[in-house]
Amino acid sequence: MKKVLVLAMVLGLASLSNAAFQLSVVPGTPGASTIAISSTTDIVPAGGDEMYWALMIEGGTGTLSGGVAVPSGIGFDLQLNGDISSSGLSGNGIWGTLFTTGGPIPAGVLFNNINLTGAVVGTVINLREIKADFSDFEPGNIASFTIVPEPVTMSLLALGGLCLRRRK
């Protein structure tokens, strides 16, 4: 399986106020990478003191597992709750919670070491907000990325195409 590189694109903020989430990926062995969820600004969950999120594979193949919440601080708590099926919702992914008890959650890395295995080029991974009553997901994505071939592979394909064209 070819090594893959993930291109992260922040698409929107859903119903979160003052939050700019980012998904970053560290390529690992072929077919495996690690994902981190971070925020560039302080987070204030809209409509309350907690926010539930899901990181889901919604196009393509692969498995998300593991992960570590950064240590909690004064006034906030972060939890990684496990497989999305344990939330009562269906899907291929994991979910977690952001709690605040008297102030915003500071900017920085929120969750890291989330394992992504078995993903292929074209797989789409979305960060979505879960409704407070766990009945469904909020509309839209908080952030999203698509797995693309690594730059060296793309360069070799382009060079091969040029060589074929030159021979004709």
Number of helices: 1
Number of domains: 1
Mass-distribution shape: elongated
Assign the structural class, choosing from mainly alpha, mainly beta, alpha/beta, alpha+beta, or little secondary structure: mainly beta
Helix content: 10-25%
Radius of gyration: 18 Å
What share of the residues does DSSP label as strand, in percent? Answer: over 45%
Tell me the major beta sheet.
Answer: 6 strands, antiparallel
Characterization of the model:
This protein is mostly beta strands and 168 residues long. The protein has one domain: Immunoglobulin-like (Sandwich). The chain is 10% helix and 46% strand. It has a 6-stranded antiparallel beta sheet with strand order 1-10-9-4-7-6. Strand 2 (21-27) and strand 3 form a beta hairpin. The longest helix has 17 residues, at 151-167. The relative contact order is 0.27.
List the helices and strands and how they pair.
Blueprint: E1 4-9, E2 21-27, E3 32-39, E4 50-59, E5 63-69, E6 76-83, E7 93-100, E8 108-117, E9 124-130, E10 143-149, H1 151-167
